[in-house]
Each structure stands twice: as C-alpha cells, then as structure tokens.
Amino acid sequence: MPVKFAPHRAAPLPAATNWLIRQALPADVPALIAMDSYAAAHASRRAFIDDAVIGRHCLVAVTAGQHVGYLVLTHDFFGHGFVALVVVAEAHQRQGAALGLLAAAEAACTTPKLFTSCNASNSASQALMVKAGFVPSGRIENLDEQDPELVYVKFIG
After folding, report:
1. Which residues of the chain form beta strands (DSSP E)?
2. I need a surface site. Which of 22, 57, 73, 75 has the fewest CB within 10 A?
C-alpha cells in the first residue's frame, strides 16, 4: 500500500525545521543511497530502497535541494504500520530530521498502531524512539548474532 498522508493524524514537526518531507521519487534513489553508508556497501539495501520508492513506501526529507534523510513505512507487520528503516545523512543527524520523518510516518499510517524496531546495541535509535513517543513492545532474538531486535509501538488511533 503506498504511503498517503492522512491530515487528520498530522503530527507537528519539530520546531525550527526547514525541510520538506514528501513521497520519495525514483529520481531521489541515488541520493538516498549516497547518504546511507550501509546501502553503499550492500546491494540488498540498494534494492530495498529502490523497491520502497517504486512501491511508494518511502518518505524523504529535503532542504535547499539537498536530501536530509528518508524513512520506509509499510503496513505489513501483522496488519499494522511498520517503520522499517529511518536514515538521516550524517551531517544532519540530531537536528530533528528523524523526528520529522517519524511524525510524517505517523500521519501517513493507516492503522491505530505504528511499530518499529532497532538493535539493542543502537542506543541512539532507542533514545529517538522514546523521544518520538514510542514505547517498548517486545524483543526478537536471533536476527543478528548477539544483538537482539527491540520492538517499539506507538498508539495513534
């Protein structure tokens, strides 16, 4: 299902933002890959980004013609919204872009629950989820060796 903005669920963007968050377009893919160091080294991530953009599941944040970050939102996590990936260019990290992307995902989510996850080793992502209003919802073992996946949920309905 393509990402569509639901104005009745619009969440405010962090203060002092000057970027635009919009549906990613095929022309954005090279810039998304360039800002994502994992994608630069892994063909599977590049294919994932391309598929997400073609499937209209990818939101992108831009400012002054520069790509700041992107987010992939699906609705296939047990029938609920799921933020599969949030990436912010290194130069723009910790400036509110990820919060803005998560707010846009919340606005676009068509289910009353929005889930996401991150590795237990990723303390920055864990702090981001808490700041964005997500609460812990579980733990998945054995995806990455010695690094459990922590699942978060935000009740939005």
Report:
1. 20-23, 58-63, 66-77, 80-88, 113-119, 135-140, 149-155
2. 22
How many CB atoms are located within 10 Å of the residue 32 CB?
Answer: 24
Both tokens assigned to 60: 């992108």
What CATH number does residue 143 fall under?
Answer: 3.40.630.30
Tell me if 60 is assigned to some domain.
yes
Residues spanned by the domain of 71: 7-155
Q: With CA atoms as reference, report the closest residue to 32 among 4, 72, 76.
A: 72
Query: Chain centroid to CA 79: how far?
Result: 18
Within-domain flag for 2: no
pLDDT tens digits, 13-56: 444 467 899 999 999 999 999 999 999 999 999 999 999 999 99
How many domains, the chain?
A: 1
